Sequence to fold (188 residues):
Amino acid sequence: MKKQGESRCTQKTISLLSPLGTIQVSGCENGVHTIQILMDVAPAERSSEAPLSCAVTDSPAETSPEMQRCVEWLQAYFTEPQTAGSLPLPAFHHPTLQGDAFTSRVLQVLLRDVKFGETVSYKRLAEMAGNPRAVRAVGGAMRRNPVPLLIPCHRVISSSGQSGPYMSGRGDHLKQWLLTHERQRGEG
Fold:
């Protein structure tokens, strides 16, 4: 693990207008650092006739291939979600996703094993990550996920089947929207 100051990144931010509102993707030439859902509008209504869109609204003149890959993945997720799983994910360049810490392990297991349209309980994810007693730590890992949507923390639900909080409870309506989006688009 690199010490602070060893590798200086020049971060750039791309803004996209999605069905969830504005999404900001920040990253550098090494990969994506963060994805932020700004919650600046209500989620788009779904219609079988009207396709969903995800368009770049603000972008630096030059972006890294990893940032471009992230934009392409997000656009596919919203417009043709059944194809998103076959697209390569960008590299991640955030300390939370490096190393062997439990948070990193949970996020990697979630990314690798919980597919589009599926859900997993906090308890089951703790078991999958190798520590069945760490249910609360799984919740903490979801809160610390720097790249929501790419690492699908919205797919983690309570054992009772309730959706559970998203974005510290402020984005519960977005979690419902995402789960419904995946269910509806997965059937198509």
Observations:
- The mean pLDDT is 89.
